[in-house]
Every structure is written in C-alpha cells, then in structure tokens.
Specification:
- The complex is a heterodimer of chains A (266) and B (334).
- Chain A is mainly alpha-helical.
- Chain A has one domain (2-259).
- Chain A has helices spanning 2-20, 23-51, 59-77, 81-85, 87-92, 95-100, 106-113, 120-137, 143-174, 178-190, 200-205, 217-224, 235-259.
- In chain A, helix 2 runs antiparallel to helix 3 (59-77) and helix 9 runs parallel beside helix 13 (235-259).
- The longest helix of chain A is centred in the middle third of the chain and has 32 residues, at 143-174.
- The two termini of chain A are 33 Å apart.
- The model of chain A has no long low-confidence stretch (mean pLDDT 90).
- Chain B is an alpha/beta fold.
- Chain B folds into two domains: 52-73 and 88-247, Rossmann fold (3-Layer(aba) Sandwich), CATH 3.40.50; 253-312.
- Chain B contains twelve helices and 13 strands.
- Chain B has helices at residues 22-31, 64-71, 93-99, 116-126, 131-144, 160-172, 190-207, 218-224, 242-249, 292-299, 315-324, 326-329, and strands spanning 3-17, 35-49, 53-57, 79-84, 100-104, 178-182, 210-214, 227-232, 235-241, 253-259, 272-276, 280-285, 305-311.
- In chain B, the strands form three sheets. A six-stranded mixed beta sheet of chain B has the order 5-6-7-3-8-9, with helices on both faces. Chain B has a four-stranded antiparallel beta sheet with strand order 11-12-10-13, with no helix packed on it. Chain B has a three-stranded antiparallel beta sheet with strand order 2-1-4, covered by helices on one side.
- In chain B, strand 8 and strand 9 (235-241) form a beta hairpin.
- The radius of gyration of chain B is 25 Å and the shape is globular.
- The mean pLDDT of chain B is 87.
- Classes of the chains: A mainly alpha (266), B alpha/beta (334).
- Chains A and B meet through helix 1 and helix 6 of A and helix 2, helix 3, strand 5 and helix 4 of B.
- Chain A: It comes from Devosia oryzisoli.
Chain lengths: 266, 334
C-alpha cells in the first residue's frame, strides 16, 4: 500500500509530462470545455430568469447545483472517465495485458497514469460558479455544514469514479462497454436538474439503479434545506455513504471481472 | 537444473456464445444462452529449467499466446497446475510480475510521446529498482543495444527496430529471472532482427536469464533457443532440442544434379526424384546414412554431369515436414 502511494506521483507525473508535449492543445481544450459548459449554463440561467425558478429552485440555487454537479463529476472523472472509456481498445489491442504484467494493481496504474488534467477547465469553471452561488445564497454556515459540503463533494466524486470503473470493468468480460457510458451520460444530463421536476419512477431510478441523483441534487438540497423526494431525512447520511458504498461495489466488480478476464484473443 | 516453470496438464477453455448464421440467426444469438467451448490449450505439460532458452512454436491459433498469458499471470488456467518461480502466476500476479520481464512484439509498453528514458525511469519506480543497480543496468543495456543515440528521443520518433531494442531493455532493467518474448522480431528488418537475436542469446548466455520466446520467424529459434516446444490445436506436439527434431525427421537433404544436356530418366535407389527439369534433376535424400559419394557412385559416369548441389534442410523445412507428418510424430513429445 505504502509502495503504491509512493508510486502515485511518478504515475501522475508521466501523464502530465505527456500532456505537456502538447501544451497548446491542452490550453485550448481547457478553454473549449469552459466555454461549452459556460454557454449551456447561460442558457439554463436565461430559462430560469424567464420563469423565475425551476421546480422551486432559483438561479443562484441552480448555479450551486450545476457547479456541484460539474465539480464532483470532474474530480471523479479525471481518474476514471477516459481511462475506463478506452478499456475496449486496451483489451482489443492487448495494451491491457501489458499493464497486467507490471507489479502494480491495474486499477491504480490505469487511474493515475491516465490522470486527466484536461478537466482543469471544468474544475475552474465549477469553483468560480460555486463561489458566486454560495456568496449569493447567504447560507447559514456552521463547521458541520461546511464539513458535510466537502464530504458530499468527495462522496459524489467517488460515486462517479466507481460507476465509471464498473462500466469499464464490464469490457473485461464483454470486450465492449462503451454503450454503457451512453446510458451513464443520459442520466448524468438529467442529474443537472432538480429531481422533483421528474416523474416519480424516474426519481426512484435516479436514487436506486442509476444513482446520479446523489451526484448533485441530493447534497445540494440538503445544504439548501430543501425536501428530498423518497429519502426525506435519510438524505444527508445517504449522500455521504453512497460514494464509499459504490467504491466497495466497484472494487468487488472490478476484481470479479479481472478474475474472469479472457482477453480478446490472439 | 531445478525447474522454474512447471506445467502439468494445463488447459484453457474459452467459453463463447454460440453464433448462429444469417440475419435471423444473429437476432436469435441475442436471446440464446448456448455456448461453445474453444479449447485453446489442451493438457500441456512441460518443465523449464533456470537458464534455458526455449522457443514456443506453433501456427496461428495453436495456443502459444494463451500459454504465455497464463505463465505471466494474465489469464487463469481452466484446469491443470502451472507454477512459475514456485508460484501460481494468476493468484500471485504482482509477485510474479516483479520477477519476470515481458516483451510484446506487437504492443508497446513505452510512453509514445515521451523520451525512452522517461519510460525507463517510471519502470525504476514500478519495479522498485535500487538506484545503483538501475544505473548499472541502464549503462549495460544502452551499450549492448546501442541505444545511446536515441534514449533521449520521444518514442514516436524511433524506428521499429530502435523501439524494439528499447522494449527489450525496459523488460530487463529489473534483472528478471525469466524473460517472455511474444514475437519480438515481428516487422523488423534483417539488421534489426540480427541485433535483437544476438543480444537475446548473449543475455541468456552471460546473465543466465531464462528465455521463453514465441515467434513465427524460425531463425529466431535457431539462433536463440536450443530447445523447442511445438504446439498445435492447443496440444503439445514436440518438446526437445532442435537438433533432436532434425534427427527425428531425418535429414531430408535436397540434391540437385545438373547435366550438360538432358540425360533422360535417372533412377537412383539412394535418392528419390522429386522434379525433372531435363538437364536439372532434383532429388530428396531421406536416409541420413547416404552420402553424396554414395549417390555419385550409383549414378556412375557417362551422363555429362556438370554440377552438384546438396542442401541441408533449413529450419523452416524441418518444421514444415514436422507439421505435415505430425500424426505419426506426436509420440515425439516426452
């Protein structure tokens, strides 16, 4: 474990150096991502300004939701999305086999040697928007609430990384898994909006089998003191436990898939 | 010598969904739970001693790569026992990986955009190589593989031959006890192939590194591996020294007799005519005890013999003959 921790800076360092070979592309990528998300958030802001609120959420509250959604996603995805989205190719071209012959856990190698600093644009935009939203909302901050807020971001980021891992791991068995990412991003889009605007079956789905309601809506509702459908008073604890719980599930799923890995032939 | 790899009745069966033909069949495949079993490795047993260099040979789909993947801990055997350096490779994958080196001819382990040295440096940390040993090994490998001119260049700018030399060096930096090479000379030009073969033979001889090599280039086997394991359809066909294989198959030398003009049919008891081009007659000498002198004596004078060419069978010929006659020779395996 200690050896793995000592190794992490070297794994991250080599990937950062790879990105630095193409500095201009990296900076343009950051700007493009920030502009893309910024444009989308501006359109949501315009709609809310027209109708005053969305499911009872005002623009500053929505801005907090969007910023939380983007920050938690970016933190989780920077160690998982591209790495596990590309599992199909890694398996088909045998590069995953080359990872398995190294004396290191393959998840650790994949996640950290592929740490995606291209999410810098997402994180900068999310933090900027979050600061503006929090200042506008004038929340009754206590140490407990601040701690909950930070832990909820971490839990949501863990949920993202765990789901990405689980989806990527299925490629170890089926070779293909990219279609599952399309399903993930379908629910991820919905998770940008207050859960209460959706019909009940979808709300249940986004709290259970596709738990992206925990990515932003539930923690933000807890912080803002808004009611959480279905979960009610369980929402604060559930939003903190969901990340670690899915990490445990993802670790078990990853190990099972690895044990049953058959390669892609050749 | 003690065995460091021991395979006993190793099997690998891949379970695949049954594919039904045609469009309707394709749709039915979506809902069927029928599976077919593909036996990629079928009851293979062998021992490899420390310091041996062994060629693992077989046609495409023979189960070579699957066996290598099981020995390196990538795949789990379906049945049988497999021990590498006293451990089950798949259940001790990380410990096993620390003591072996693996080179895949068709997939790079180097960081494409970075100088070769950066990949080496990362491996230093992954394998926890002490600084002194790393520096010494790097100096030795750089000199032996002539990497000095490109070690600080990004991998993407290297030729295939340079890249393969760097891959081999990277696999040896941590002094592995066993080096697995999966088709290391594939795609290389003659000069690069020669450099790689000479180096691998040297590493095996001087450093005592055990080498297991799969290849389609039989010259690799001839120049690096005294021992040959041949497989087909997942089964072991031959395990022994290359020279024993030659002896098992007989010499099957080829003899060409060139005459000043067409001497007409020539029938010899010591050689079998395989082709008659008029002035040039081609024979096969299947009996190892028959010498060229015996043939010329039987031919006698008066045919206007101009030239004689006797060719020893090359390794490709030996292997081709082996696979053609394999049902009779399957007993050659111990």
């Amino acid at each position: 474990m200690l050896r793995t921790l000592r190794l992490l800076p070297h794994l991250i360092g080599i990937h950062v150096r790879t990105h630095m070979e193409y500095r201009s592309a990296l900076v343009i990528g950051w700007i493009a991502q920030a502009v893309g998300y910024g444009g989308m958030y501006a359109s949501i802001a315009l709609i809310i300004n027209r109708f005053e609120n969305l499911g009872g959420w005002t623009w500053p509250q929505m801005a907090l939701l969007l910023a939380f959604h983007l920050l938690a996603y970016a933190v989780g995805a920077c160690i998982s999305f591209v790495q596990f989205r590309d599992m199909e190719e890694k398996i088909r071209f045998g590069t995953f086999d080359a990872i398995l012959v190294k004396p290191i856990g393959p998840w650790t190698f994949l996640a950290f040697s592929g740490l995606n600093i291209e999410y810098g644009g997402h994180i900068a935009l999310a933090i900027g928007l979050m600061i503006w939203a929090l200042l506008s909302l004038d929340l009754p901050w206590t140490p407990g609430l601040a701690l909950y807020f930070a832990a909820a971001v971490a839990s949501a980021a863990m949920l993202v990384a765990a789901l990405m891992t689980m989806i990527g791991a299925t490629a170890l068995i089926w070779v293909r898994s990219r279609h599952l990412f399309a399903i993930f991003f379908g629910f991820w889009e919905l998770a940008r909006y207050p859960l209460n605007i959706f019909p009940a079956p979808l709300q249940i789905l986004m709290i259970t089998f596709a738990p992206l309601g925990f990515l932003a809506f539930i923690p933000c509702a807890v912080v803002l003191g808004k009611p959480v459908p279905i979960l009610g008073d369980l929402a604060p604890a559930a939003s903190l436990l969901i990340g670690p719980l899915f990490v445990i599930l993802a670790a078990a799923h990853w190990r099972w898939c690895l044990r049953n890995y058959q390669g892609a032939g050749g | 010598m003690p065995s460091i790899i021991a395979a006993r009745g190793v099997e690998k069966i891949f379970r695949q969904p049954r594919r039904l033909p045609g469009f309707i069949g394709g749709l039915r495949t979506l809902f069927t739970r029928e599976f077919t079993e593909v036996r990629a490795v079928d009851g293979i047993s062998f021992d490899i001693a420390a310091g041996e260099a062994t060629g693992y040979l077989g046609p495409n789909g023979a189960g070579k790569s699957t066996m290598i993947k099981m020995m390196t801990g990538i795949l789990v055997p379906t049945a049988g026992t497999l021990s590498v350096l006293g451990r089950e490779p798949h259940s001790n994958r990380i410990l096993n990986a620390a003591e072996i080196g693996v080179v895949f001819g068709q997939r790079s382990q180097l960081w494409w955009d970075l100088p070769v040295r950066d990949s080496f440096d990362l491996n230093r940390h992954i394998y926890d190589i002490p600084a002194g040993r790393f520096t010494e090994n790097l100096r030795y490998l750089t000199a032996m593989l002539d990497m000095g001119g490109y070690i600080d260049r990004p991998v993407r700018q290297l030729s295939l031959g340079q890249r393969m030399r760097a891959e081999i060096a990277m696999a040896l930096l941590h002094d592995p006890k066993i080096l697995f090479l999966d088709e290391p000379t594939i795609g290389l030009d003659v000069v690069a192939k020669d450099a790689v073969r000479k180096f691998l033979a040297e590493v095996n001889r001087e450093r005592g590194t055990t080498i297991i090599l799969t290849t389609h280039d039989l010259v690799d086997i001839e120049e690096i591996c005294p021992r040959l394991i041949m497989v087909d359809d997942g089964k072991l066909l031959f395990d022994g020294e290359l020279k024993r294989l030659r002896a098992t198959l007989g010499s099957r030398r080829r003899l060409t007799l060139e005459f000043a003009g067409d001497p007409g049919p020539i029938i010899l008891t010591s050689a079998t005519l395989t082709a008659d081009d008029g002035a040039a007659k081609h024979f096969l000498l299947e009996d190892e005890s028959v010498s060229l002198l015996d043939v010329l004596e039987e031919l006698g004078r008066g045919h206007g013999l101009k030239d004689v060419k006797l060719e020893e069978p090359d390794i490709e010929e030996v292997i081709r003959t082996f696979y053609k006659t394999k049902p009779q020779l399957a007993g050659a395996a111990p």
